[in-house]
Amino acid sequence: MFEVLVAHILEKVALTEEEQTVLKSFFTPKKLRKRQYLVQEADICKHLSFVTKGLLRSYHVDEKGEEHISMFSLEGWWASDMYSFFSGEKASFNIDAIEETEILMISLEGFEEMTLRIPVMDRYFRILFQNSLVTKERRLVSAITHTAEEKYIRLAECNPTLIQRVPQNLIASYIGLAPETLSRIKKNISSRKSS
Amino acid sequence: MFEVLVAHILEKVALTEEEQTVLKSFFTPKKLRKRQYLVQEADICKHLSFVTKGLLRSYHVDEKGEEHISMFSLEGWWASDMYSFFSGEKASFNIDAIEETEILMISLEGFEEMTLRIPVMDRYFRILFQNSLVTKERRLVSAITHTAEEKYIRLAECNPTLIQRVPQNLIASYIGLAPETLSRIKKNISSRKSS
DNA sequence: CATCCTGATTGACGTAGATCAAGTTTATTT
DNA sequence: AAATAAACTTGATCTACGTCAATCAGGATG
């Protein structure tokens, strides 16, 4: 489990053997079965979690009770309601497992102590957040400028794994479409291909 | 100029007097007049810029030639095509000045040297990016879940300064609406108020 | 003072995608 | 293997918002 985490961090910054050991000490492993919640809206999100295996979804429920998925976290990604985690306020997202999932969790106190004891971790997270920001920016542009079909095609190109592993209705929710619409879009695409 | 920058950083991390001096040495000031470009699509975005005065917009032009504003940068905010800046690839955003604007610019080499010489700057940017990520996440949720009217109302509540300083058609572009639609929405809102 | 130019408003009309509803297929659970 | 639930498809209809086009108001600019 821990190797996945360490390997992921080593891609961005260097850590001594000792730092690696210290780092690991801040994390606790946890297993989630399918459909199990990691964070529930209105709880406080006490942990930042690194996915070593499986797949999580973060989603928000609007006033009408509709779910809107804001992100998927595959192996090698982090998951958390960042606002809740860093501020200590109530979470506005739910996070649950789409597949059987294994994670490594760190608490806020742990996080803070970790960045003090291993300062390059600030750099690691600076780079991580910086990259996420670029990705999120792209999604925002896509959400506003592209048609439903374009959004789906882009996602399928950039993230083929997701399309394979995630049920179609969740993909629809992720790109902001009604499931029926996505179904029709896929039909169109494939009928166009075969002609 | 520099005081605005230093003050802004000191809100998040501590800097010694010496570090402050070193920090300043990495930045060069620049003035932009109204409508002047800071970054043009297809150029490489060579700088990360901190706005000390004025107002910038970052926008993306789609295949049909439509502009989509992705962010405004007021005093105290940063502006850049982050992807282009950090990767050295061509920019996909344009950035220009809505008002007369003064900025402080740092190059990528400067940025890298700065984080090595003043390691807490990694922490500063970690926190900055972390907060931006939360904000961007919120916008994404809003873009997908809210109606046109809700989007406008939220923006007006969270960011009244923007509404005052930015022409309405640019606000429309920012929330992903046709200018006509925003005009009608405002009319509805005010007619409802007066009834 | 006249003329641009940029931005805002209003109306008529079109369309992408949502919603509702029914039926079918595919997974889980027992 | 039966039972139940979740996921996907298809059709009919509705609506929020976009598009096009004309008009209007207020600053700049000559």
- Continuous helix count of chain A: 9
Query: Can you summarize the main beta sheet of chain A?
Result: 4 strands, antiparallel
What radius of gyration of chain A results from the CA coordinates? 18 Å
Second rung of CATH, namely the architecture of the domain at 2-119 in chain A: Sandwich
Query: Helicity of chain A, in percent?
Result: 40-55%
Count every beta strand of chain A, where a strand is a DSSP E run of 2 or more residues: 8
Strand content range of chain A: 15-25%
Tertiary shape of chain A: globular
CATH class of the domain at 2-119 in chain A: Mainly Beta
Give the termini distance of chain A in whole angstroms. Answer: 47 Å
The quaternary state of the protein chains shown equals homodimer
Mean pLDDT of chain A: 95
Protein name (chains A, B): cAMP-binding domain of CRP or a regulatory subunit of cAMP-dependent protein kinases
GO molecular function (chains A, B): kinase activity
Domain Cyclic nucleotide-binding (chains A, B): 30-114
Pfam families (chains A, B): cNMP_binding (PF00027)
Can you describe this structure in just a few lines?
2 copies of one chain form a homodimer. The first copy, chain A, contains 9 helices and 8 strands. Chain A has 195 residues and is an alpha+beta fold.
Polypeptide structure, described:
The structure is a homodimer of 195-residue chains. The model of chain A has no long low-confidence stretch (mean pLDDT 95). The first copy, chain A, is an alpha+beta fold. Chain A binds a DNA duplex (30 and 30 nucleotides) through helix 9. Chains A, B: This is cAMP-binding domain of CRP or a regulatory subunit of cAMP-dependent protein kinases.
